[in-house]
Amino acid sequence: QVQLVESGGGLVQAGGSLRLSCVASGRFFSNYAMAWFRQAPGKEREIVAAIGASDSTTYYADSVKGRFTISRDNAQNTVYLQMNSLKPEDTAVYYCALRWRVISRKAEEYNNWGRGTQVTVSS
Questions:
Q1: Distance between first and last Cα of the chain
Q2: Looking at residue 21, what DSSP letter applies?
């Protein structure tokens, strides 16, 4: 069972930046597609960005395109989410998740989840 641990969340002013990290335990990290989801109070969990396994195909939600960048370091078993030009509506708990090989936009298709890291953007 792969375990995921997120870090890097915090409180930032609108327009600021944060970099989230998610470290995976275990082997074969490079074979997994990774994704970041977020959930704000009273809202459903939504995908933010995802990155594929072998070809590092990426996907971004329209709401974060041009502001967020997902990347991975397979040698460090880590996936990152660089968040720039943050807005108050980006406030949420951010979760990383993994599934085998190919990215998906659907939360139910991811097998393992981290416990999340809180991101709060003040106006």
A1: 40
A2: E
Residue 5 amino acid letter: V
Question: 102, 52 in Cβ contact below 8 A?
Answer: yes
Q: 39 to each of 5, 103, 118, how far by Cα in Å?
A: 17, 19, 10
Instruction: Tell me if 36 sits within 8 A of 81, measured CB to CB.
Output: yes
- Identify the three-state secondary structure at position 76: helix
**Helices H, strands E: what count in the chain?**
0, 11
Note down pLDDT in tens along the chain; length 123 residues: 889 999 999 999 999 999 999 999 988 899 999 999 999 999 999 999 999 997 679 999 999 999 999 999 999 999 999 999 999 999 999 999 999 999 999 999 999 999 999 999 999
Closest listed residue to residue 23, CA positions, set 78, 94, 80, 99: 78
